[in-house]
Amino acid sequence: MAKLASGRVTQKSSELLDKFNSSLLFDKKLYAEDIKGSIAHASMLEAQGILIKSELEDIISGLNKIKNEIENEEFVFDIADEDIHMAIEKRLTQLIGMSGKKLHTARSRNDQVALDFRLYVQKNTLKIKHLLLELEAVLLKIAKEHTNTLLPGMTHLQHAQPINFAYHILAYMSMFKRDIQRLESSYERNDFSPIGCAALAGTVYEIDRDFTAKALGFKEPTVNCLDTVSDRDFALDILYNISVIMMHISRLSEELILWSSSEFSFISLSDSYSTSSSIMPQKKNPDVPELLRGKSGRSYGNLISLLTVLKGLPLAYNKDMQEDKEGVFDSVDTALISIEILKEALNTMSVNKENMQKACEIGHLSATDLADYLVKKCGMAFRDAYKITGAIVVEAEKMGIDLSQMPFDIIKALAPCVKEDILKYLDLKNSMNARLSKGATSIKSTNEQINYFQKWLQEYITK
Fold it and tell me: What is the 3 state secondary structure string of the chain?
């Protein structure tokens, strides 16, 4: 049987060209979107009097049969069909005859693939968003349980100031909240229907693009057909969004890896989400966060790959754009499983509060509180207070104790203006709770943040 889209080319294409030219092995993933788009297009053609009712009924019946064949693994994919669009159209013509050949009236594979791919991206943008909301719920649950759990806050991976574990977790909630907002923004920006643009210049048929846009759930049709068939900004959007999500996941994963090591022992990952060494029976490896950390790289690669494909293309459609899908499919699959397994790993991990507390007693985390005391209570300039605090820290180092354990008489010898209340300021929990400014680490401020995120999540649930 001759190819449906043979046209000007009269000689049979070589098997090598078929293999090189075909996208069917990967774009068959778009079968449901292609069938959905074709039903909407056919319904519009019938409403406009371009098809008659019986032809529309045959087309819809045939397309639904094809969908069942694909989902039941009965459909025969032939690489010579080039792509999923031609494979479905050929099978439809086999099933219903002449009506199947009329389906492609007033459209091109250019607007057809733009539609299918956009539907896929929009659908998975929502899927990723909903999974992130589930992850946020787990993070919020952890935060609620650990407002009173001390943790050394770090800069440069060095102990800096005492914070609570909930506060640290809420920092990641803030990151993933921005990710959700980016996904929503992208969904809104790309909520326009490409179908009806045909090859690049529209069509001579009296079609109704508003009809198909509404039938497919889009806000409205795109404005310019030349732009539409060559636009892959929506694909770049989801690749960028996933890259940022995976970067955030990678940062959290790095901390999970560190925290689960013997040197930290802040957390223990569940055996269900850990692996053993092939040679060392005592080991429990954090393979889940390690893989998550590694998978960020492939997401970045997919984004850069598509940017590179698109950067030099003249308008409108070019065959280079066939390279737009595999990276998106890969990044979407990576994001979906990564968010899901991170959620479960966090939900099943245990937290070692005692080790976190002990770690806070290393590194003189309340040193800034001493300097602030000298400024506020003794009237010193901050730089003078800073210098005296440094001298007291050196003395603590010589004594082999943390600043929070420093005897009052030693402190007073180096800073004569202090009173005994300085010991309260140097207490680690008091130090943490002294930070009452909006967005700070005190339990009061942390609880305000928890309430904020809880309200935000509840609003999503009721949407």
Answer: CCCCCCCCCCCCCCHHHHHHHCCHHHHHHHHHHHHHHHHHHHHHHHHCCCCCHHHHHHHHHHHHHHHHHHHCCCCCCCHHHCCHHHHHHHHHHHHHCHHHHHCCCCCCHHHHHHHHHHHHHHHHHHHHHHHHHHHHHHHHHHHHHCCCCEEEEEECCEEEEEEEHHHHHHHHHHHHHHHHHHHHHHHHHCCEECCCCCCCCCCCCCCCHHHHHHHCCCCEECCCHHHHHHCCHHHHHHHHHHHHHHHHHHHHHHHHHHHCCCCCCCEECCHHHCECCCCCCCCCECHHHHHHHHHHHHHHHHHHHHHHHHCCCCCCCCHHHHHHHHHHHHHHHHHHHHHHHHHHHHHHCEECHHHHHHHHCCCCCCHHHHHHHHHHHHCCCHHHHHHHHHHHHHHHHHHCCCHHHCCHHHHHHHCCCCCCCHHHHHCHHHHHHCCCCCCCCCHHHHHHHHHHHHHHHHHHHCC
